[in-house]
Design brief:
This protein has about 130 residues and is mostly helical. The chain is about 75% helix and about 0% strand.
């Protein structure tokens, strides 16, 4: 019985992913988590404390929120994409080169994908007479 339900569940997830800017939200969330993790863990020789550490946490949380927003409310993709694009540029200056450039690259590409995503038109089934 579970083999019959498995393709339906997979199609449901695939349909959910295709009906919204999934990759954009994923990259925004990963970039935000990267900013947080780099400032939290540190690399031994680099200590991210003070304003750069606080900015990394604040920007990281905002990127994660922007990613979740693009997933759950695709109509707000322009707002979250534009906000993420501006914040990714701010992260270069405020958050130690945007989390050693990896966080900047992830969030810049994610924001570009959010701004460029266009919903697919609904497929109509042709009825044969």
């Amino acid at each position: 019985m579970s083999t019959v339900m498995r393709p339906d569940r997979r199609f449901g997830r695939r349909g959910w992913r295709r009906s919204r800017p999934f990759t954009a939200g994923l990259l925004l969330g990963l970039g935000g988590l990267e900013l947080i993790c780099v400032s939290w863990v540190g690399l031994g020789f680099l200590r991210f404390t003070g304003t750069a550490g606080a900015a990394s946490w604040a920007l990281g949380v905002l990127f994660v929120v922007a990613g979740v927003t693009t997933w759950h409310t695709p109509a707000l993709r322009y707002f979250s994409g534009a906000l993420a694009a501006v914040l990714s540029l701010v992260s270069l200056v405020a958050a130690n080169l945007g989390g050693l450039l990896l966080g900047f690259l992830l969030t810049a590409v994610g924001s570009a994908l959010a701004l460029a995503w266009v919903p697919q038109p609904a497929a109509t089934a042709e009825v044969e007479a």
